[in-house]
Design goal:
six-stranded parallel sheet; TIM Barrel
Amino acid sequence: MNNTLAEARALVAAVREGLGDGSTAEVGIAPSAVLLMPMCRAIADSPIQLGAQNVYCEPSGAFTGETSPAMLVDAGCRFVIVGHSERRAIFGESGDLLRRKVAAAIDAGLNVIYCLGETLDQRERGETNDVLERQLAEVLVDGTDWRKITVAYEPVWAIGTGRNATPDQAQAAHEFLRGWLNEKFGDTASAEIRIQYGGSVKPANAHELMNLPDVDGALVGGASLAADDFLAIIRATEGS
């Protein structure tokens, strides 16, 4: 929940200029819902993709304050983030609701960045893999179109805290996730599904994280609000 319209326009203009024509990274932005349509215009004729931070699982109806998948498509979105730790922790979103959101978004033609991750207490109790497996299994069910899915590992204890998982911790979690995807969907899916890291990604740690064998990109939070920092992270993915 950041940026006025003027601030968002200035930020996106700076990112567009910094990317130029030669970037090999796939870049997306996910502004707040009220900024989706103006940001769609701001990135027109650029390689930047538009996404949303949230979606509801019904096509229409008496769900005041919610946004349907079709509305997001109408606004120019190509992807949506589902299951972010703040949606789980602050708004109490359950696995069943997230499964329905993922299915509805995919049915509408949207790609989904599905977020998951453990709290500090869960990690200290040695439950990281159990948590990740549960969060995968309750949403990515038989019949899920894995070609529309990106998985984003965001250790909750590393979001907005200035802490981040060590390279070994990040790689171990991503390797576990890829192994589960292999068992569920097969070799092709596990190789092709992107698994992003999203926990206090900054220019200082981006290159090391992006060079881990099972890290396929970054879900960037606070650092995306400064064009220079965001561009530095994008350049780190290009060099990985």
